[in-house]
Amino acid sequence: MGTASLDLTVYRWIQSETSARDRLALLSIQAVLGAALGTYTYLEVGSHLGGSLQPHVCRRQCKAIFSIDPRPLEQPDERWKTAYKYEGNSTQRMFEHLAHIPEADLEKIKTFEACSWELKPDDIPKCVDYAFIDGEHTNKAVLRDFEAVRRFLSDQAVMAFHDSLVTVAALRAIRHGLDRSDSQARFLFFPNSQVVCIVLGGAPGLVASLIDFGWQTNVPISRWAGAKRWLNESIKRSRAYGFIRGRWNHRRRGQSGLC
Questions:
Q1: Ramachandran region of residue 120, left (φ > 0), alpha (ψ -120 to 50) or beta?
Q2: Of 163-177, 202-216, 226-240, where does mean pLDDT reach its minimum?
Q3: How far apart are CA 257 and CA 37, in angstroms?
Q4: Domains of the chain
Q5: pTM recorded for the entire structure
Q6: How many CB atoms lie within 10 A of CB 38?
Q7: Shortest CA distance to 134 belongs to which of 109, 159, 108?
Q8: What residues contact 159, with CB distance under 8 A and at least 6 apart?
Q9: Are 110 and 64 in contact (CB under 8 A)?
Q10: What's the pLDDT at 252?
Q11: pLDDT score of 75
């Protein structure tokens, strides 16, 4: 089993702020859960245009989707001194984009225009198998999203985080907390991507299957802390963030994981 079996064209309909490696990471989780469970329930924090929903709206194995997004026009971001702008951000616009995807089942999507921690425990059934955190990119928000979304997870579930380099402090805190409280939780990292995931509930079969797709158990969080400082300084010296991010990805290729 490997990433060659994954179809990146499912992302062709809507712009998504994910790299090809990010998308392979997310699709591999979908494939592993689909094979292990038959069907799955998906939740994401931060839907924006709907780009990360594309692989799930037309996937019959996905029985329900929960989209949590307060729809801010701007919000804090660890990468910038000023708030990041989200012009025209709306749930209606997202559904308009999703409606152009052939065979998309929009009826299975339930949206919440709120922060995850504002939801009540019974707003979402405790049945989520796959959660994706990609909302406000601050350490404080990622920590709160983790704790809030965890209330809705099934007994064995996978929670993925995007832009892991940006919120290193939050991921370190989550990892240290789980080391103390949940010996069954496993952190994994998809090389040359900005995606990490946690397999919760003691599911060695899921972990083994993700490793078959190329995921690694050595999550280089400590190394990222130094690399993040380098990246931030580079951003200050250049307006072309896309160019700098490309330099970061090139620099990281071939490096082994280091806890």
A1: beta
A2: 226-240
A3: 29
A4: 3-218 (3.40.50.150)
A5: 0.85
A6: 9
A7: 159
A8: 131, 132, 133, 146, 149, 150, 153, 197, 198, 200
A9: yes
A10: 47
A11: 84
